[in-house]
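Quick one: structure tokens for this chain, please?
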Amino acid sequence: MKKIYGFINSHDFYEALPRVASFAQLTEPSVYSALPDDWVIGVADVVGSTQHIQAGQYKMVNMVGAAVISSQINAGHGKAFPFVFGGDGASFACEPKFAVESARILGVMKRWSKEEFGLTLRVAQVPLSEIRAAGQDVSVVRYQASEGVDYAMFNGGGLSWSEAQMKLGAYSVPTALPGALPDLTGLSCRWSNATAQNGSIVSVVVQPTPEAAPGAFSDIASQIVTVVERLNRGGHPLPAAGPGVRWPPPGLSVDAHVSRGQT
């Protein structure tokens, strides 16, 4: 793992990261760069998401999780920052000069989720310095998926630790006042559901145990990636042309909730 932030302004850390084009390289700890100590981690998740999804509200749950990121993007005027969407929530890293505004937006999302959908959204903001004091870390790499498109990938266990702390009630962000609305300009999900090409779409989640030997997770992840790369299109579940569309699109009512109050 590299520590490059000592040579640049903390504000420019993420912009300065090189892009990594090989997905297989993401299993190598050496390509990740440690986040600066003065950054903070934002986390959010929908309480009882499993039950909501089982009740057929998966579009609603997904949209709230995606809205956490969209609201941060718009509040930051589109400046790139590292984030990951978890389906029923999201995690992201925030530079110090934006931390206060980021926390405020999390509070707005907490209020909006409840008022618009009746979903309880947990939100928290955790200082990276406290994550490291607890023996965890957060490092990041920018994966260049295609020309002009890159995604953040995290390493170090700090995001999982932060989420666990949030669920214990630590680092909670206050709820915004009634009626507060986030800026969700550009957020929409009107794609049709993708069908399985071979009967099932499988997602494999692998997490290291606390007692795992250094490098063990990297070795296992590398083996999984090697197997997947042998599949058609590297195991990509979507058609080459992307998911289909139809009218009316699924989740149109959810989109209506998202667009309320937007110009």
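The radius of gyration is 19 Å.
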